[in-house]
């Protein structure tokens, strides 16, 4: 195929963008996780407030943190990621 | 002998065995033995891909060692475990499409194939194969010990007898099936793990009298158990945060995870796997470690931490449910061992033996060598597992750290930095592994250097070494 060179560039540009999105998600995840755990959690345990039976720091950091990440990944998969072909001109080694 | 628990467990092993035979029959029909045996022909769909990653990754440490540590340390260890949510999306997004495209172009079947093509260096291949063999041995031993503990707790067999049972089941299975069998049953096992942890969590919460009651009991026993700082207040923020490197983002450098990132069928499967993987990994990690903490008021005074999960399952659930639930960790360990065995034997047989000793080997010969070598490996690991250490989580984490220190930069920079070259890769692997082993030993004796996990500093050192050596020996940029 004559346009092989151009097509390669196009696929890698998308791949690079999506890798950066992965890093951004991880940074956000760390900040959320750390922020709630070590602010709310640093109080003396007697002063903890509880949400659904869990200490507030744990609820926000671990449980909500997980739910928020699932939601963000959903948004990224649904609206940002693009489908690209993986094979070179449709030829697989098999 | 606890037959009511044992029968569902054995039934599961049998079903897995059947799946192995079935996929072996498929194996005979295809044309490329190597690609099939080690990679499942790059045709994994989204669900299977996500589950196989979760099952490989969710190993004995997440089902026995991790919850055992949570039992001792409290909610602080659950916080630490939640750093693993990142693995669900990070690996697939970062290695992602570029890795899939490039490994197809290289016709790479293993991680080492990729490194070999990218860096064109025999030294890179040999160092990689060597570190995979060394570190994955440690990881495999951890799984076998975990499996043996579990069977021992359920059946009352001796440790040695239990170990033998586990080993035979794994070996027969992996030898007849190869990667496709591993991937397909991983999907089954992933689902068992997902449901099993949920059932067990509910059982423990009911047995403990509800979450409020459990938290009150923990507060009464030791208020530190509900803080992020561990039962003795020693779990520092710096140490816990350094686990983002070890079990969060650093997982990109694990060969057993990276090989999954080259086996998906198309970008659609990858997108689905991202979604499913994030949910499954996060859900299982959160539940299993919470179970560990909740088990404390329900069943106080368990001495061997690795037995917390089997004991609590048999305590809180009806026997036959316990049998099915305990199939989850057993499934996780089997699938991890399967994948690791394949990975180690692929490194030696394919990456070293065929590359450098017998490039013209025919199909029958390759097959004989692969299967024979896998079997020998299994026997060696069995012998190593006969005298186990107390807490297997540390053995497993040791292996994780070593592999990450070795591979993270050669893989990531090789993929995204055009000036990466073989000098950088070799320097990075040598510095990474060397400093990791040194710092690990230092931490064992003197406590954690800078208060962080042993993997943290080597990851930075190997990055510096990679960049410095690549630039010193700078040649023209690499074009894919």
Automatic annotation (TrEMBL), chain A:
Please provide an example of a Pfam family that matches this protein in its UniProt record.
Answer: DUF997
What keywords sit in the KW lines?
Answer: Membrane, Transmembrane, Transmembrane helix
Q: Which residues cross the membrane?
A: 20-37, 57-77
Instruction: Give the highest taxon in the source lineage.
Output: Bacteria
- The protein in question is named Sodium:pantothenate symporter
Q: Which organism is it from?
A: Alkalibacillus haloalkaliphilus
TrEMBL record, chain B:
CDD domains reported for this sequence: SLC5sbd_PanF (cd10327)
Main subcellular localization, coarse class?
membrane
Asked if the Swiss-Prot or TrEMBL record annotates the protein with the keyword Transmembrane, the reply is: yes
For this UniProt record, the keywords arranged alphabetically read as follows: Cell membrane, Membrane, Transmembrane, Transmembrane helix, Transport
GO cellular-component terms in the record? plasma membrane
The record's listing under Pfam families reads: SSF
Query: What are the transmembrane regions?
Result: 6-23, 44-64, 70-95, 124-145, 157-179, 191-215, 235-254, 274-295, 320-344, 365-386, 392-417, 424-443, 449-473
One BP annotation, GO:
sodium ion export across plasma membrane
Regarding the membrane, this protein is recorded as: Multi-pass membrane protein
- Does the keyword Magnesium feature in the UniProt annotation? no
**What is a GO molecular function of this protein?**
sodium ion transmembrane transporter activity
- List the InterPro entries: Na/Glc_symporter_sf, Na/pantothenate_symporter, Na/solute_symporter, Na/solute_symporter_CS, Sodium:Solute_Symporter
Where in or outside the cell it occurs: the entry states: Membrane
Q: Which family does it belong to?
A: Belongs to the sodium:solute symporter (SSF) (TC 2.A.21) family.
Designated name of the protein? Sodium/panthothenate symporter
| Organism encoding this protein | Alkalibacillus haloalkaliphilus
């Amino acid at each position: 195929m004559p346009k092989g060179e151009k097509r390669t560039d196009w696929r890698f540009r998308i791949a690079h963008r999506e890798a950066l999105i992965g890093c951004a998600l991880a940074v956000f995840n760390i900040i959320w996780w750390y922020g709630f755990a070590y602010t709310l959690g640093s109080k003396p345990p007697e002063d903890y407030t509880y949400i659904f039976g869990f200490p507030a720091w744990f609820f926000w950091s671990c449980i909500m943190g997980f739910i928020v990440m699932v939601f963000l990944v959903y948004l990224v998969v649904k609206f940002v990621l693009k489908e690209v072909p993986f094979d070179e001109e449709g030829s697989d080694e098999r | 002998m606890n037959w009511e628990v044992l029968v569902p467990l054995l039934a599961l092993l049998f079903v897995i065995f059947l799946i192995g035979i079935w996929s072996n029959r498929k194996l005979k029909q295809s044309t490329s033995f190597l690609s099939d045996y080690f990679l499942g022909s790059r045709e994994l769909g989204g669900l299977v891909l996500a589950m196989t990653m979760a099952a490989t990754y969710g190993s004995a440490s997440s089902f026995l060692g991790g919850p055992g540590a949570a039992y001792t340390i409290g909610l602080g260890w659950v916080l630490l475990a939640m750093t693993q949510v990142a693995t669900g999306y990070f690996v697939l997004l970062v290695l992602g499409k570029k890795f899939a495209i490039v490994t197809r172009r290289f016709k790479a079947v293993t991680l080492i194939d990729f490194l070999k093509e990218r860096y064109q260096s025999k030294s890179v291949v040999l160092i990689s194969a060597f570190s995979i063999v060394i570190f994955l041995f440690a990881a495999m031993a951890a799984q076998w010990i975990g499996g043996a503990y579990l069977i021992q707790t359920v059946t009352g067999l001796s440790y040695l007898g239990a170990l033998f049972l586990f080993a035979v089941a794994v070996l027969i299975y992996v030898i007849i099936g190869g990667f496709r069998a591993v991937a397909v049953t991983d999907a089954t096992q992933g689902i068992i793990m997902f449901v099993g942890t949920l059932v067990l969590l509910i059982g423990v919460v009911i047995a403990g009298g509800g979450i409020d009651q459990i938290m009150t009991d923990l507060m009464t026993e030791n208020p530190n158990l509900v803080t992020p700082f561990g039962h003795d207040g020693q779990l520092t923020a710096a140490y816990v945060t350094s686990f983002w490197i070890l079990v969060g983002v650093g997982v990109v450098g694990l060969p057993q995870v990276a090989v999954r990132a080259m086996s998906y069928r198309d970008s659609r499967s990858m997108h689905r796997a991202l979604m499913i993987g994030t949910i499954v990994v996060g859900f299982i990690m959160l539940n299993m470690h919470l179970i560990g903490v909740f088990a404390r008021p329900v069943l106080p005074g368990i001495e061997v931490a690795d037995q917390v999960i089997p004991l609590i399952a048999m305590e809180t659930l009806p026997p036959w449910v316990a049998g099915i639930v305990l199939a989850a960790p057993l499934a996780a360990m089997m699938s991890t061992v399967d994948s690791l065995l394949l990975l180690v034997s692929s490194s030696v047989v394919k990456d070293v033996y065929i590359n450098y000793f017998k490039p013209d080997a025919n199909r029958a010969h390759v097959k004989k060598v692969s299967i024979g070598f896998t079997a020998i490996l299994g026997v060696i690991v069995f012998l190593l597992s006969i005298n186990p250490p107390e807490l297997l989580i540390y053995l497993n984490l040791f292996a994780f750290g070593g592999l990450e220190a070795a591979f993270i930069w050669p893989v990531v920079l090789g993929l995204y930095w055009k000036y990466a070259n073989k000098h950088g890769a070799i320097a990075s692997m040598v510095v990474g592994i060397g400093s990791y082993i040194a710092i690990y030993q230092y931490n064992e004796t003197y406590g954690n250097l800078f208060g962080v996990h042993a993997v943290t500093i080597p990851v930075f050192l190997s990055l510096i070494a990679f960049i410095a050596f690549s630039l010193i020996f700078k040649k023209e940029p690499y074009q894919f």
